């Protein structure tokens, strides 16, 4: 993996989504990737902001709202291929 001064972060939601979609032989690879990243805990302010996003953006799923809120509350860049989540600020 490439080295960076900035850590790569993830939420437990992101891990759950990827773990759910894994193939039996993919578990070790997923664990290797996530072992070099840091998990950001989900706290109350994230829950509030996610709720605001759900109210503002109809069709946004709760998992995506939590991920977006985690990035927002922690002033982090959000990398996603989810077009719905991209509009959340």
Characterization of this structure:
- It is a single chain.
- With 89 residues, the protein is mostly helical.
- The protein has a single domain, classed as 5'-nuclease (Rossmann fold, 3-Layer(aba) Sandwich), CATH 3.40.50.1010.
- The chain has helices at residues 12-20, 27-35, 44-56, 62-73, 83-86, and strands at residues 9-10, 38-39.
- Strands 1-2 form a two-stranded parallel sheet.
- α3 crosses α4.
- The longest helix has 13 residues, at 44-56.
Provide a short characterization of the protein structure:
By secondary structure, this protein is mainly alpha-helical. It has helices at 12-20, 27-35, 44-56, 62-73, 83-86; strands spanning 9-10, 38-39.
The SSE order reads EHHEHHH
Beta percentage is: under 5%
Tally of DSSP helical segments: 5
Structural class: mainly alpha
Helix content: 40-55%
**What are the segments in which pLDDT stays under 50 over at least 5 consecutive residues?**
none
CATH architecture: 3-Layer(aba) Sandwich
Distance between the termini: 30 Å
Radius of gyration: 14 Å
Mean pLDDT: 87
Number of domains: 1
Strand order of the largest sheet: 1-2
CATH topology grouping:
Rossmann fold
Q: Based on DSSP secondary structure assignment, what is the total number of beta strands?
A: 2
Return the CATH class: Alpha Beta
Largest sheet: 2 strands, parallel
